[in-house]
Amino acid sequence: MVPQCTMERSDPKATRRILARNVRRLRTTRGLSQEELAQEIGLRQAQISEIESGANNITLDNLHRLAVALGVRPCELIDERLKD
Hints:
Layout: H1 12-29, H2 34-41, H3 45-53, H4 60-70
Helix pairs in contact: 2-3
């Protein structure tokens, strides 16, 4: 059985903060620089930086690309329980 993903329901900014934390943690755990991750998914390094700071409200397409590059399901990127 696949565990359910959970996310903050009341505050979109909280969801962006969770996404930022999870992307940064997964990227660094995998030994990728922001530039390497950006190249892999077709974004600029500045966009990865904005995602990791919670400043960028990304598209679903980019959420999917990030998940594939980081080896997780898209919902896991916004799961407040994500652990490495």
